[in-house]
Amino acid sequence: GQQLNQSPQSMFIQEGEDVSMNCTSSSIFNTWLWYKQDPGEGPVLLIALYKAGELTSNGRLTAQFGITRKDSFLNISASIPSDVGIYFCAGRPGTNNDMRFGAGTRLTVKP
Amino acid sequence: NAGVTQTPKFQVLKTGQSMTLQCAQDMNHEYMSWYRQDPGMGLRLIHYSVGAGITDQGEVPNGYNVSRSTTEDFPLRLLSAAPSQTSVYFCASSYSVGVGYTFGSGTRLTVV
């Protein structure tokens, strides 16, 4: 099946630093989504991308749908302690609702 | 509160036992899915449904059954639990194809 490779696996940063993570696929995706998961909770949608080249922001978060439709990145600017969590990319390879997830990036922010 | 409700939150089963994980949403969403989450592997799709009476398999369907008799409910059945099914299970729903899912808070299942 379609595999998503998400990197890095984990990041340890200082409060105030910017963060960048990305996701690549072996095949074309029609939709890219970015989620954040806090401990003991389900993932929460951060940003949704629907067109190649699309760049979308949500507060300090910015995500882009790659031109090749095989990748996406998420940037977090000026990180704060509550940014701690696991960030997942997800993609929809077809026209149905079969959404596939990356393995996640675990973010730690040191005050 | 509107959203996706999963029960139970925790469950311990013995190998070979059966059980049903419940999922209900009150947002009138057509699309619902079940995922399992294992350490270092992200979320893997088990089964999904595009509407009442319609279900399909995801990446890892073996050992699980689903049905969708109403728009609101999408239960996941384990017919004969195995230790390999120890995981955290998430149910999710969305109102349209390709729109981001709303997730429940998960069921943590341990099979001994």
Please provide a written account of the structure.
The complex is a heterodimer of chains A (111) and B (112). With 111 residues, chain A is mainly beta. Helix content of chain A is 0%, strand content 54%. Chain A has strands at residues 4-7, 10-14, 19-25, 31-37, 44-49, 55-58, 61-65, 71-76, 85-92, 100-101, 105-110. In chain A, a hairpin with a 6-residue loop joins strand 4 and strand 5 (44-49). The model of chain B has no long low-confidence stretch (mean pLDDT 94). Classes of the chains: A mainly beta (111), B mainly beta (112). Chains A and B meet through strand 4, strand 5, strand 9 and strand 10 of A and strand 4, strand 5, strand 9 and strand 10 of B.
Overall structural class of chain B, as computed from helix and strand content, comes to mainly beta
Structural class of chain A: mainly beta
Largest sheet of chain B: 7 strands, mixed
Mean pLDDT of chain B: 94
Number of helices of chain B: 0
Count of β-strands of chain B: 11
Give keywords.
heterodimer, A: 111 residues, mainly beta, six-stranded mixed β-sheet, five-stranded antiparallel β-sheet, 11 strands, globular, B: 112 residues, seven-stranded mixed β-sheet, four-stranded antiparallel β-sheet, 0% helix
Entry summary:
Chain A is an all-beta fold and 111 residues long. Chain A has strands at 4-7, 10-14, 19-25, 31-37, 44-49, 55-58, 61-65, 71-76, 85-92, 100-101, 105-110.
Furnish the topology, listing elements before pairings.
The complex is a heterodimer of chains A (111) and B (112).
Chain A: E1 4-7, E2 10-14, E3 19-25, E4 31-37, E5 44-49, E6 55-58, E7 61-65, E8 71-76, E9 85-92, E10 100-101, E11 105-110
Parallel strand pairs in A: 2-11
Antiparallel strand pairs in A: 1-3, 3-8, 4-5, 4-9, 6-7, 7-8, 9-10, 9-11
Chain B: E1 4-7, E2 10-13, E3 19-25, E4 31-37, E5 43-51, E6 54-57, E7 64-66, E8 76-78, E9 87-94, E10 102-103, E11 107-111
Parallel strand pairs in B: 2-11
Antiparallel strand pairs in B: 1-3, 3-8, 4-5, 4-9, 5-6, 7-8, 9-10, 9-11
